[in-house]
TrEMBL record:
It comes from Pediococcus ethanolidurans. Pfam families: TetR_N. InterPro entries: DNA-bd_HTH_TetR-type_CS, Homeodomain-like_sf, HTH-type_Tx_Regulator, HTH_TetR. SUPFAM superfamilies: Homeodomain-like. The keyword Transmembrane helix does not apply. Residues 42-61 bind DNA. PROSITE patterns: HTH_TETR_1, HTH_TETR_2. PANTHER family: ACREF/ENVCD OPERON REPRESSOR-RELATED, ACREF_ENVCD OPERON REPRESSOR-RELATED. Residues 19-79 form the HTH tetR-type domain. Keywords: DNA-binding. This is Transcriptional regulator, TetR family.
């Protein structure tokens, strides 16, 4: 696949030049892996979902693991760095605790929502797959200078948050709230939700937790 950067996995995939069968297999795997898990999805199910034969799958991918990595690698190598740089560039245009937290909550949830299937797969594999976990932590290490030069760290240095709170503490508070809500929306569908009101509530909870 092309290494061009992208902002939405499915949109990017549909823009790539590749055989129709290969694209169908990847899109079906993305859907099934996100809903059923990697281990819970067979190549027979992928073939049926993609309306191709299992032989077509193995024509393009030697193993199911190769197919999984074909989904994961572009996410880590392309999507994540592009969104990281775009996010921190926009973040640094904001000032003050309320404004910064509001931007982070709404912008990052939009990112999670637009790439829900891909993120669900990535999150699951980070927890269970050593290769994917190592790739992800390499990305985190490569991102440290960007993060420490961001408005989030400046907010800590300027004491806009309570004393003793570090950048890691702040990031953990925000990320924890967003991922928990993302998982609730995607896996606990019986709970009634009002997305805008919920995100505003998350914003208020974060500010209450970190402000001086």
């Amino acid at each position: 696949m092309s290494s061009n950067v992208f902002t939405n996995y499915k949109q990017w995939l549909n823009d790539q030049t590749m055989p129709k069968g290969r694209r169908a297999v990847i899109l079906s795997s993305l859907d099934l892996f996100s809903r059923q898990g990697y281990d819970g999805t067979s190549t027979a199910q992928i073939a049926q979902h993609a309306d191709v034969s299992q032989a077509t799958i193995f024509k393009y991918f030697k193993t199911k693991q190769d197919l999984l990595m074909e989904i994961i690698k572009p996410m880590i190598n392309n999507l994540a760095p592009v969104f990281r740089d775009d996010f921190f560039s926009k973040l640094n245009e904001h000032n003050g605790l309320q404004e910064i937290v509001h931007f982070v909550v709404f912008d990052r949830y939009k990112f999670l929502k637009e790439n829900a299937a891909a993120f669900q797969i990535l999150l699951s594999e980070i927890m269970t797959n050593e290769t994917v976990r190592a790739m992800f932590f390499d990305l985190v290490r490569q991102s440290q200078s960007v993060i420490f030069n961001s408005a989030l760290n400046k907010m800590v240095e300027d004491k806009l948050v309570r004393p003793g709170l570090t950048l890691v503490d702040l990031a953990r508070t925000i990320i924890g709230q967003l991922i928990t809500y993302f998982l609730q929306r995607n896996f606990i569908t019986a709970i009634p939700t009002d997305e805008t009101a919920d995100l505003k509530r998350i914003e208020d909870l974060i500010i209450h937790a970190v402000r001086p």
